[in-house]
Amino acid sequence: MFFIHLHVTSWLLAFILFLIAWPLYVKGKSQTAIILHWIIRISYVIILISGSVLLYRYSQAEVWQTYSAEVIVKAAAGLWAVVMLEATLHRMKGGKPFKGFTVQLVVMFAITLILGFGRLPWGFLP
Predict the structure, then answer these.
(1) Which of 23, 97, 100, 109 is the most buried (most CB within 10 A)?
(2) Any stretches that span the bilayer, and where are they (predicted)?
């Protein structure tokens, strides 16, 4: 249970800080945005470690036979979402177009949430 809560808390923190850093980069307040960006990067490490532990625990659980493909897709979509968070902020920081990265982020985030909370057994639905 600890790693599930740690994982959800860390990605939620990263996403909230991302939504705060976005307008700061757009408005040109880069010093504050850079500080937030580094805090987000620290949460990436926690997301990746806790997600890896959860992936390992799923692989050891009885439900692996039934849900293995969905767990792997969720892990890949979650990793892709983290990469798109970083890529989007990096493009914003450089003043480059970031719309494509944002679309990928939203799609991967949605896939991750649907699989994590709606389909897999350790989410909301049994």
Answers:
(1) 109
(2) 6-26, 38-59, 71-89, 101-122
Q: What string of H, E and C letters represents the secondary structure of 57-91?
A: HHHHCCCHHHHHHHHHHHHHHHHHHHHHHHHHHHH
Task: Return d(Cα 124, Cα 107) in angstroms, integer.
Answer: 20
Q: Residue 108 is encoded by which pair of tokens?
A: 């991967």
* 85 touches 18 (CB < 8 A): yes
**pTM for the whole thing?**
0.89
Instruction: Say if CB 71 and CB 51 are below 8 A apart.
Output: no
What is the distance of C-alpha 78 from the center of its chain?
5
Q: Which amino acid is residue 77, in one-letter code? A: A
Cβ proximity of 74 and 115 under 8 Å: yes
